[in-house]
Amino acid sequence: MTTGPAEYVDVVAVRDDRSAPAGETTVIRLLGLLPGHWSCIPDVAPDRIRLRIGLDSATNRTAVSSAVSRVLADSALRGWSRDQA
Fold it and tell me: pLDDT below 50 — which residues of the chain?
């Protein structure tokens, strides 16, 4: 029996620009740019995306923060930013 990660980090992105694609399209782009081996559970609304990312020995909070910041800087995600709240 395999169990999933015991610890998660939540990352929230918000739409800053009304002309940017809505969350349903953006989450596909976001997930496509993140490492494929990450365990991600998305919660999507038109103006907000929350990703619950599983942590393990190779995926820690620092790695998640760095990767998400790098991905949100991609032109495919223009109009979206990380919610720091």
Answer: 1
The answer for residues whose C-beta is within 8 angstroms of residue 52's C-beta and 6 or more apart is 8, 9, 10, 40, 41, 42, 43
- Residue 32: which residues within 8 A CB-CB, separation 6 or more? none
Q: How many helices (H) and strands (E) does the chain have?
A: 2, 4
Which residue is it, tokens 């942590």? 55
Residue 21 tokens, joined = 């694609």
CA torsion through residues 79, 83, 14, 77, sign: positive
Contact 50, 12 (CB under 8 A): yes
Structure confidence at residue 58 (pLDDT): 82
CA dist 68 and 26 (Å) reads: 13
Q: Is residue 56 within 8 Å of 5, Cβ to Cβ?
A: yes
Q: What is the pTM of this model?
A: 0.87
